[in-house]
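FORM 7B: Structural annotation worksheet

SECTION A. Query
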Amino acid sequence: MAYKVYLKKGEEKRIVAGHSWVYANEVAKIDGKDKNGSLAEVYSFDGRFIGKGYINHASKILVRVFIRGNETDDEEYYLNAIKTANDYRKRLGYENCYRAVFAEADNLPALIVDKYGDYLAVQCLSLGIDLRKEIICKCLVKLFSPKGIFERSDVAVRKKEGLPEMKQVLYGEVPDYVEIVENGLKMLVDIKNGQKTGYFLDQKENRFTVRKYCRGEVLDCFCNSGGFSLNASTVADKVLACDISELALKNVRDNARLNGVKNIETLCGDVFEVLRTFRKDKRLFDTVILDPPAFCKTADEVKDAYRGYKDINLTAMKIVKSGGFLITCSCSHYMTTTLFDKMLIGAAKESGRTVRYVEIKTQAPDHPALLSAEETHYLKFIVLQVV
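SECTION B. Predicted structure
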């Protein structure tokens, strides 16, 4: 008999509004018995059907609701759901590289599918999705006819689901590097070992946006594989790409060579220290780009993250030439837009510079955010001018 999960009084409102997560502490009782990871029915306190989703007693997120009607989680369901998600991207004109499935935002909780040319990268972030990996893979082959599918489930969040981190080929063959085309530039993506699923697709449009602001000498901090650096190089005189990872910088140099770009230099170092050194040496840049990794992955880390963001932004403001630009980002949803703005206002005040907003953007349209799930709205991209 399938599990029947009954919520405490009033706890159904968020789920009815479109959120997927049912937390264990929101549950009044559970009837029935089935396997962990099976499809469970969710009801309100007074017995109204809310939806169905995968249950996992090992996780604080007890159920991830994704079916709101009488459907079941068979191959046809996944085929239609993934096709719907991908059709939305195709409608927007995405072809070569994009996020084809964005978990909760596409009503497929805990499933990520990224397209890199003829290859797909997949993340399975819950027990229920992990158990249906074979079905999902079949659907992806039918819909995309890829040369290869690689699983990048090497993320710590799987431990909360009682799952080990995993990297493996799920279908076909996958090379060490896959060539994509983004904003007219060729990029080599390391699907097997690169950040996330190989590349930060959520900044695609924002990387093109920096071309408006990058003249003279540009400093690209936390440059990773060089997405911002390559776009900046199309209009700047010189770009200095800085990252603590020499492997990432090798990727930058490889991508520069692939595009015949000769105005990018790389610098290996801790960005915090590098910025302080430039400040001490009174070295100034026309544009500084800050695209750090998430400084806070839990609510408990917000205070330390706030200090970290303020540190780099304050120092960056001090090394931007008068009239130049600071392009600053945060990819943590815990660092809310309000909190990020507060940090920038404080940093500007302490810097002694006059700073003004020029442009504010968020994640790319292939990473849509649900109004009912603030976790899906995470990326802040802000262009400031230091007058």
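SECTION C. Observations
The chain has a mean pLDDT of 96. Residues 337 and 353 are 22 Å apart (CA to CA).

SECTION D. Sign-off
Analyst initials: ____
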